[in-house]
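Sequence in, structure out. First:
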Amino acid sequence: MAIINEIKCARCDRKYSGVRSRCPYCKARRIGRGKYSEDSDNAKGKMLISVLIMGVFTVAAGILLFTTPVDADSRGEPDNTPAISNPEEDINNLPSLAPTPTPSPTPSPEPIAPVDVSSIEITYEGNPLRYETNGVKEFSLQKGRSLPLGTRVEPAGVVADVEWEGSTDYEDVFEFSHVTNGEIIVLGVETGSASLIARAGDKEHRITVRITN
């Protein structure tokens, strides 16, 4: 039995689908259920059931179409899932590092050996002083005059720091000023005499300075 029955037109006696309300041939309005319709058939109910069944199939097909998962490999897209690494393997695969060389200690500068001075002598124009009293060299200088003095250190070629010093009363007789390490200039201030000492290392030389009018 068909889902939708055919009915016969009461005017032209032709059959047509029960879903129509008029005869497609003579345009006569269908009266009731048609000329030969069965009372047990519910044409409208069957039509609604058919529409519902078609709707269910349509919805199901749409759900299946839009919810089917698509594999990333089938689309040719890259897999961005981060790889899970093993910490132990990562440590073992690290490149070996060369040991850091131990820096060599900076050598300490060698201590400077003390200067071994055998003797020091006060000189005038590079020559030893000529005059001597009681074993002490001396020279005379007029008041208001100046005189340059130098030193000679033995052994020759030894470079030594030379220090000059006067006796406690030298400022009453003369004053001196340094020019270079081994030379000074002596200036007579008042008549009298006082000592002048030159030292280098552990050696020294003492002379007597006499200031005259």
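Second:
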Amino acid sequence: MIVTITFNPSLDYFVTVDNFQIGVTNRTTSELLLPGGKGINVSTVLSHLGIASRAICFTAGFVGDEIIRLVRQEGIEVDAIPVEKGCSRLNLKLRSADGTEINGMGPEISAEKVEQMMRKLESLSDGDTLILAGTVPGSMSQTIYRDILERVKEKKLQIVVDATKELLLDTLPYHPWLIKPNHHELSELFADELKGRTLSGSTEEGLEEIRGYMQRLQEKGARNILCSLGKDGASLLSENGEYFHAAAPEIPGKPVISTVGCGDSMVAGFLAGILEKNDREYAFRLGLAAGSAGAYSDRLATGDEVRGMMDSMSF
């Protein structure tokens, strides 16, 4: 079983407004409503690739009801924890205004609701995969990732973590099976050493530097590290010492539409590849294909789009 947890899911309202202006009434030329949140995104792409998962999430109000409806519409088992105080996030994404976004706060999640979530994890069995992804609402403890792993430490789970800063670092003593920082997040983890500089995979020297910091995270406890590098593709450092890098595949003549959810798609593709062939290079390529295919779509990539991107890549 694969279980994803989304602490602060959202309903993402993507709009295009031609010639957007501040202080006047603007009208949309296109609209799209999609469920959001990193764990839900992973579950969605897994579903597109024919792999079942259970999506645990906290939901509140009419927005929460719509999130549940849309996720179930994708064929995903939703295990929602209802929250009475507040409302799930409704995020506004202005596609035609330089990527401007307005994201909601989300509901207030009590300690009782967190304990309900913890009890749901008791059903996990040895060999299951647990995916912790995304930010944590301000009403919850910022040690929740560590608290979860402490709670399930006696189970032999494949733990996947896609988080930033202390949320990620707190999980390393538990030896997560996979972590997936991007190059910006990797730079933040070593900000003191880098003195504000952002790591880049655009040169061989830059890639080697990124590999060195990935090795540092392995020394801290991570087993497999998948680092997304934006237009420069991705790198994988496996627990067996294997290292793979590939540039992001492109669709000639087609512009990138949106990078929202591309990292989540990469995680889903990598997991799908492991389940299909238990081969890390294959999984790496499928993950890269999934992340890249999503960039050319106004929503998360379909299975056909991912497979088509995979077929276009040279090994």
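Remark: The chain has eleven helices and 13 strands.
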